[in-house]
Amino acid sequence: MSDLFAQGAPDIIREKRPLADRLRPKTLDEVSGQAHLTGPDGVLRRMIEAGSLGSMIFWGPPGTGKTTVARLLSGEAGLAFEQISAIFSGVADLKKVFESARARRMSGRQTLLFVDEIHRFNRAQQDSFLPVMEDGTVILVGATTENPSFELNAALLSRARVLTFRSHDEESLTELLARAETVEAKALPLDPEARASLIRMADGDGRAVLTLAEEVWRAARSGEVFDAAALQEVVQRRAPVYDKGQDGHYNLISALHKSIRGSDPDAALYYLCRMFDAGEDPLFLGRRLVRMAVEDIGLADPQALVVANAAKDAYDFLGSPEGELALANACVYLATAPKSNGVYVAYKAAMRSAKEHGSLLPPKHILNAPTKLMKGEGYGDGYRYDHDQPDAFSGQDYFPEKMGRQQYYDPPERGFEREIRKRLDWWSKLRRERGG
Questions:
Q1: What's the burial of 50, exposed, middle or buried (CB within 10 Å: 0-12/13-18/19+)?
Q2: Are 222 and 185 in contact (CB under 8 A)?
Q3: CA 125 remoteness from chain centre
Q4: For the chain, where do the domains classified as CATH 3.40.50.300 start and end?
Q5: Start-end of CATH 1.20.272.10 domains in the chain
Q6: Which of 243, 273, 289, 351 lies 20 to 30 angstroms, CA to CA, from 68?
Q7: Global pTM value
Q8: Is 149 exposed, middle or buried (0-12, 13-18, 19+ CB in 10 A)?
Q9: Which CATH number is 247-336's, of 3.40.50.670, 1.10.760.10, 1.25.40.390, 1.20.272.10?
Q10: Which CATH code for domain 170-235?
């Protein structure tokens, strides 16, 4: 038994290693999909040639090679490599790592400290890196899938360069599959359509495409070739990369909002369906559509708010899957409606005035006078009831006297606001004529 484990174990372990691990690049030249960083003119290549690596934050989706590149950098630069995960490490672990790095530095060797999921460290833990970065004890390389601007301390960011890792495109995923077939010495049992479908399922994740390939090889019987439908049954469907509390969520809702604002119903429907497909709460989307109706369409089409609100209520009433169609109707209606932010701009301007001018008393002629004292103070004196005036318009000034007349709302010549513009111009003319 001891001979079996002593001699055979290494080969057995090697065979059982995941394909993604076996295909892990051994040099920067073998890294796929990140030519802007690792290619001949890439940022990291230039740093290595200059013999000067600084602390960095690697920001990008899962499966894009952040860990691998960090390890390769340490080898290229002749640095000791230490790796920790913010998920499993605490203050005590950091102290041990820093002490080891200081000991190496005393012997003349610097340490590249790779911190996976660095955004998981709290503010105080992030601050603990600052002294060892500043005195050169470590070159920090932090990896994160979240936007560093929101998740990392400003002090940490000021001492590290943020490098963006890109999702794998179709070309680089195809290259990874070709390398996998070379290593396995057999072709993937997929027809062309199924192969393309597998690449789409990977959603830009290099590790995922290799994991999916392994599942296909495990499932295929001798001589069997899967079409797209069979592939979907075999591997099931990998959920899109999307976290409702983080960047993917905000990126897609921003894309939906801007597509509607930009009057592109096709793009708007696409992003709406992306979010449905990723499991977003449809009522959240309904509420956002209501917001878009009041912010970007406003009174250019007063029905927009009615339609959006009705769609939200329809989903609440019907549930899934029928209710999603109501939201899709609202999405297309909003995207094709005339656009105006006139009321939105006016609201913000009026709010600024309200804050700047304080508690100014309205003009006395529009104040009610329920008591003799108030009548004696001039409350209600000179008020002209608009319905009794020609054109049902008195032209009086309703702003506080110390403030003077203001204009916040300037409706554009679009949609229903074209009619509002005509009315405002007419009332302005009457106000000048009547000295209001």
A1: exposed
A2: no
A3: 25
A4: 34-164
A5: 247-336
A6: 243
A7: 0.66
A8: exposed
A9: 1.20.272.10
A10: 1.10.8
- Counting Cα atoms < 13 Å in the Cβ hemisphere of 414 gives 16
With 0-12 / 13-18 / 19 or more C-beta atoms within 10 angstroms meaning exposed / middle / buried, residue 361 is exposed
CATH number assigned to the domain covering 34-164? 3.40.50.300
Quick: pLDDT tens for 237-272.
555 555 555 667 788 899 999 999 999 999 999 999
- Separation between Cα atoms, residue 16 and residue 69, nearest integer Å: 24
CATH 1.10.8 positions along the chain are 170-235
| Contacts of residue 263, Cβ cutoff 8 Å, sequence gap at least 6 | 335, 336, 339
Yes or no: say if 113 and 86 are a contact pair by the CB < 8 Å rule.
Answer: no
Contact predicate 167/153, CB 8 Å: no
For residue 325, which amino acid is it? L
Q: How far does CA 36 lie from the centroid of its chain?
A: 22
Residue bearing tokens 């909002």: 257
Residue ranges of the chain with per-residue pLDDT less than 70: 1-15, 237-247, 435-436
